[in-house]
TrEMBL record:
Organism, as annotated: Halalkalibacterium halodurans (strain ATCC BAA-125 / DSM 18197 / FERM 7344 / JCM 9153 / C-125) (Bacillus halodurans)
Source taxon at top rank: Bacteria
UniProt keyword Membrane, yes or no: yes
Identification of the protein by name: BH3479 protein
InterPro entries registered for this protein in UniProt: Lipoprotein_NlpA
């Protein structure tokens, strides 16, 4: 950059803030100071971006971004992908989806966009069938066959409370976003019984207000976050639980 600039960026705690903290010295070399604000939910990062309290956010997937734009009429655009976090199904009682008993209760997020990522995991395992058009996100209403009468969505909680629900022994299985599983100290290797397949992963995006999309410092930010150095950090730090993209 010709002149030093500061970017205020809002992000989830893990892995987003950790990735940004690693990238900060690389950005300093390019004349950019990163001011990171960590959020614990999925609502405030977008309202903060809309209100101008931050310049960029880094926490959401394309499906969630599209849902938020439709619901709140945000004028946001994505500048690029950084990483993906496969949603996992976790259980302390069962070691596979196939072991889930008749009427097993599945707890998951209250975010509709997450439902479209979780339900195909069960369909892929042959436990349910979905009647949904290609390219559309599935909802609970799209379940056309459920031989085991699995109970989906009787408990829908904010994504940040899923790890505590799991640790408290609620439900037979809990679908947890990887960032909250990591943040909540869930043992992914021990308790994860199924995950999104890699061919349908939803990347986490760098999002800005549409009016700011051509600012050169944002292009540098994306370039650094998609660099080989950051990719290697993600691979080594999260041991496959977080997948670099972009």
């Amino acid at each position: 950059m010709d002149e030093p600039v500061t970017i205020k960026i809002g992000a989830s705690a893990v892995p987003h803030t950790e990735v940004l903290e690693f990238a900060a010295p690389l950005l300093e070399e390019r004349g950019i100071t990163l001011e990171i604000e960590t959020f614990t939910d999925y609502i405030l990062p977008n309202t903060a971006l809309r209100d101008g309290d931050i310049d960029v956010n880094y926490f959401q997937t394309p499906g969630y971004l599209a849902q938020q734009i439709e619901e709140y009429d945000y004028d946001f655009v994505s500048l690029g992908e950084v990483h993906a976090e496969p949603i996992g199904i976790y259980s302390k009682e069962y070691s596979s989806l196939e072991e889930l008993p008749e009427g097993a209760e599945i707890i998951f997020s209250d975010s509709i966009s997450d439902h479209g990522r979780i339900l195909p995991i069960f369909e892929r395992a042959g436990l349910i069938e979905l009647d949904v058009e290609e390219g559309e996100l599935a909802t609970i209403d799209d379940i056309s066959s459920n031989p085991k009468n699995l109970v989906f969505g009787s408990q829908q909680v904010e994504a940040r409370f899923l790890a505590p629900s799991f640790e408290n022994g609620e439900g037979d299985a809990v679908a947890i976003n990887t960032n909250y599983a990591l943040e909540g100290g869930v043992d992914i290797e021990q308790y994860g019984i199924a995950f999104e397949s890699e061919d349908v992963l939803q990347p986490n995006l760098i999002v800005v207000r549409a009016e700011d999309q051509d600012r050169p410092e944002f292009q540098v930010l994306v370039e650094v976050l998609q660099s080989e150095e950051v990719r290697q950090f993600i691979e080594e730090q999260y041991n496959g639980a977080v997948i670099p993209m972009g």
